[in-house]
Amino acid sequence: MDADVIEAALEKGKAEFEKRGVSADLCLVGLDGTAETKIVDYLTRHSYACVVVGGGIRKPEPMLPFFEKVVNLIRQHAPDAAIAFNTSPMDSAEAAARWITAP
């Protein structure tokens, strides 16, 4: 997929959170050895009601060990957060809404 298309989808997804009155952080990671540190940094800087794990981490079969690591990092560093899964960046708010409600 084209980077511009992905970026546009991420922006639409973030806008959907805003429409619902829910603040959201976006933690994009690469596989350059810094992902775990970045994820832990995000998980520990705020208290999250829900963490949505995207398909880029979840869907490609070779990513399975990393996906497991991400889920366990969430359990360890944000134990009170629900974990949700989207089908695309644009339905992340819907995925989170299955587990939380806006204030």
Q: Quick summary of this structure?
A:
Helix content is 50%, strand content 8%.
Q: What does this 3D model show about the protein?
A:
With 103 residues, the protein is mainly α. The protein contains 5 helices and 2 strands. The protein has helices at 3-19, 35-45, 55-58, 64-77, 92-97, and strands at 50-53, 82-85. The protein has a two-stranded parallel ribbon with strand order 1-2. Helix 2 packs parallel to helix 4 (64-77). It is globular and about 35 Å long. It starts with a helix and ends in a 6-residue tail after the last helix. The relative contact order is 0.22.
Fraction of residues in H or I helices: 40-55%
Strand order of the largest sheet: 1-2
- Annotation, overall tally of beta strands: 2
Pattern of helices and strands: HHEHHEH
Contiguous low-pLDDT stretches (5 residues minimum) are: none
Report strand %: 5-15%
Distance between the termini: 35 Å
Which radius of gyration do the C-alpha atoms yield? 13 Å
Shape: globular
Mean pLDDT: 93
Q: Structural class, please?
A: mainly alpha
Put simply, the count of helices is 5
Tell me about the largest β-sheet.
Answer: 2 strands, parallel
Keywords:
103 residues; mainly alpha; two-stranded parallel sheet; 5 helices; 2 strands; 50% helix; globular
Task: Summarize the helices and strands and which ones pair or pack.
Layout: H1 3-19, H2 35-45, E1 50-53, H3 55-58, H4 64-77, E2 82-85, H5 92-97
Parallel strand pairs: 1-2
Helix pairs in contact: 2-4
